[in-house]
Amino acid sequence: MSKFVGASFLGSFTAFGVATCCILPMALILLGLGGGWLAVFGKIAAASYYVLGGSTALLFLSGIVAYRHGSLDRLKWWLTGSFALTTIAWVIVLNEIRINDFLITLM
């Protein structure tokens, strides 16, 4: 049981990392770091929707398994944390252009 919840939490952190892969470099450039290494993130950004979709599916699977085993009360905070991270990741990916435009205006 805890394997599913741990996997959903790890998937949520992965989704959050993929979501920030295009915004974090812009923020680091604002701080004065070079942008030559920015090309590395192109391949990661191409897979962001797949990783986010897999993370969301894993989160729902964990919730269903926890509900069926009757341990939803015990694991609700883990699932809530995973849900919050995955939701933030979706918001970042779906608003990536606006966030990047805002960061560019700060340059």
Give a summary of the structure in a few sentences:
Helix content is 80%, strand content 0%.
Keywords:
single chain; 0% strand; elongated; mainly alpha; 107 residues
Map the helices and strands.
Layout: H1 2-19, H2 24-30, H3 41-46, H4 48-68, H5 72-94, H6 96-106
Helix pairs in contact: 1-4, 1-5, 4-5
Strand content: under 5%
| Structural shape | elongated
Q: Which residue ranges are poorly predicted, with pLDDT under 50 across at least 5 consecutive positions?
A: none
- SSE string, helix = H, strand = E? HHHHHH
Main sheet summary: none
How many strands in all?
0
**Cα end-to-end separation:** 48 Å
Rg from Cα: 16 Å
> Helices and strands: which structural class?
mainly alpha
DSSP helix count?
6
* Helical content class: over 70%
Averaging pLDDT over every residue, what do you get? 75
